[in-house]
Specification:
The protein has 124 residues and is α+β, with helices and mostly antiparallel strands. It has one domain (23-121). 17% of the residues lie in helices and 35% in strands. The protein has two helices and eleven strands, in the order ββαβββββββββα. It has helices spanning 15-23, 110-121, and strands at 2-4, 9-11, 24-26, 40-42, 48-50, 56-58, 63-65, 69-74, 77-82, 89-93, 101-106. The strands form three sheets. A seven-stranded antiparallel sheet has the order 3-6-7-8-9-10-11. Strands 1-2 form a two-stranded antiparallel sheet. Strands 4-5 form a two-stranded antiparallel ribbon. A hairpin with a 5-residue loop joins strand 4 (40-42) and strand 5. The longest helix has 12 residues, at 110-121. It is extended. The termini are far apart. The mean pLDDT is 87.
């Protein structure tokens, strides 16, 4: 099927593949536009190694697991939990990024904590 995206024509994946991808999308293994699978990659020694399957999304990206965290789609944005090199964080964000977070549960950035403490000390 050929579709127009407002700027150019492109070949859309078949309907059954799009339906399957809505239920479960295995981003680390699937090639772009449902053009096949890439389960293995060659490493420097020439041996094959299984690719990381993440990100993995289910139910139209309602839930996505990344390997370093996960998110749930909410009516007002995303509930995000992360762990790894930058520490544990849990927040709600309009676009899923920490810079757009409007509720922090843990892992609040230092600059936000400083502003909060300052406002509390000022009585506001």
């Amino acid at each position: 099927m050929i579709k127009w995206n407002g700027e150019e024509w492109y070949e859309a994946p078949p309907l059954l593949k799009r339906i399957r991808q809505w239920f479960i999308w295995i981003g680390g293994w699937e090639r772009a536009n449902a053009k096949g699978w890439r389960l293995f990659r060659k490493i420097y020694s020439g041996k094959l190694r299984l690719n990381d399957p993440t990100p993995v999304s289910i139910l139209g990206h309602w839930f996505t697991y990344y390997g370093w965290g996960f998110n749930f789609k909410l009516p007002s944005g995303y509930f995000v939990v992360t762990w790894g090199n930058q520490g544990r964080k849990c927040y709600i964000s309009t676009n899923g990024t920490p810079s757009q977070a409007h509720i922090w549960y843990w892992g609040t950035p230092k600059e936000i904590l400083e502003v909060t403490v300052f406002r509390h000390q000022q009585g506001g």
